[in-house]
Amino acid sequence: MRLSTVILPTRRWHEGGRDQWLRAEQLGFHTAYTYDHLSWRTFRDGPWFGALPTLTAAAGATERLRLGTLVTSPNFRHPVTLAKELISLDDISGGRVTLGIGAGGNGFDATALGQEAWTPKERADRFAEFVPLLDRLLTEDAVSARGTFYSAEEARNIPGCVQRPRLPFAVAATGPRGLKLAARHGQAWVTTGDPKLFEDGTPEQSVEALRGQIAKLGRACAEIGREAGPMEKVLLTGFTPDRPLDSFDAFVDFAGTHFALGFTELVVHMPIADSVFAADESVFEKIATEALGQLR
Questions:
Q1: Angle of helix 248-261 relative to helix 203-223, nearest 10 degrees?
Q2: Phi, psi of 118 (to 5 degrees)
Q3: What's the whole-number mean pLDDT along residues 112-140?
Q4: What is the distance between the alpha carbons of residues 187 and 73, in angstroms, rounded to a whole number?
Q5: Which residues of 253-262 are buried (b: 16+ CB within 10 A; e: fewer)?
Q6: How many Cβ atoms from other residues are within 10 Å of residue 129's Cβ?
C-alpha cells in the first residue's frame, strides 16, 4: 500500500514551490507527481509552470522521494524529444522517475499548438503509436521508425535510463485500446474512476465502476499472457463522488475500500486554498503520516 501526492506547478520555485516538494518528502509520501499540461481548467489564468523543469528542480531538492507525471500525453509532445528529457531527468534524480502517460483530452493543451482538437479515435491512434515508440527510445541506443504520426531517424539515447531496462510507465487508460497498451507496456495502470459519476453518482457506484475497470485490465493482460495481479494499480483521487480528504476517518474508510479492490497506490492532491483542491492542511498531514498505519 502506497500513498502519494500531486503538486500542481502553480508556485514560483523560490516563492513556495520548492517548499512543497520538500514537504512531500518530509511527510513520507511514496511519490510526488505533477500534471504535465500547458494550462489546466480553473488554473488557466494563473501561474502554471512546466512539468519536466519542475521535476528536475525537485530532483535536486529531494533525496528519497520518487517523482513523476500524472500524466504526460501526445497533445504537445513527441516521443523523440520526450525520451531525451526523461533520460536526463532519470539521471539527475538518480533513478527516481515514473512516467505517467495517457492519451490526452480536449482541454487547453489540445489546441495550444494551433491545431484542431483530435477526435477520440485520433487520440487513441496517436497513443497507440506514441507509447511503443517511446518504449523503444528509452531502451535502445539508436532508433529509426516510420509511423503515421511519429517517426524517428537514428535517434540516439546513450547511455539510457538509470532504471533498467527503462524508467517505469504508469499508463492511464479505461478504454479497450488504452488498456491493451497498459497491459503490454505499463509497469503500473492509472485511473481517475468513471467521470460520468463525478457529479451525480454515488461512492458505491464509483466502487463498482472501478471494479469493472480492474476486471477489464485483467482481461487485457490475460490476452497477452500477463498476470494482472502483480501490476501496480494507481487511483488518482479527487475525481470520484467521494470526499476522502474531508476527515482522517473518511480517508481511512476510502483507502480501505479501494485497497481491497486491488489498488496499490492512492494519490491525493496537495491542498490549494480557494480551489477545487482546497482541504484542511492539518487533516492532510495526518493522512500523510498516519493513515496507512490504520490499514496494516
A1: 30
A2: -70, 150
A3: 96
A4: 17
A5: ebbebbbeeb
A6: 17
| Element at 269 (helix H, strand E) | strand 265-269
Per the CB < 8 A criterion, the answer to whether 3 and 268 are in contact is yes
34: β partners: 69
Distance CA 292, CA 184 (A): 30
Which pLDDT score, from 0 to 100, does residue 107 have? Answer: 87
For 148-156, which contacts have Cβ atoms below 8 Å and span 24 or more sequence positions?
Answer: 149/74, 149/125, 150/74, 150/78, 150/79, 150/80, 150/126, 152/79, 152/80, 155/80, 155/83
The three cell numbers of residue 266 are 492512492
191: which 3 cell numbers? 485511473
For 87-103, what is each residue's pLDDT tens digit?
999 999 999 999 999 99
Is the pTM of the predicted complex or chain greater than 0.85? yes
Cell of 23: 514537504
User: Residues 255, 291: contact at Cβ < 8 Å?
Assistant: yes
pLDDT of residue 296: 76
- Is residue 71 reached through a cis peptide bond, with omega within 30 degrees of 0 on the bond before it? yes
| Cell, residue 273 | 486554498
- Rounded to an integer, the average pLDDT of 23-51 is 97
Q: Which residue's C-alpha cell is 523503444?
A: 136
Please tell me whether residue 70 adopts helix, strand or coil conformation.
Answer: strand
Cis peptide before 159 (omega within 30 of 0): yes
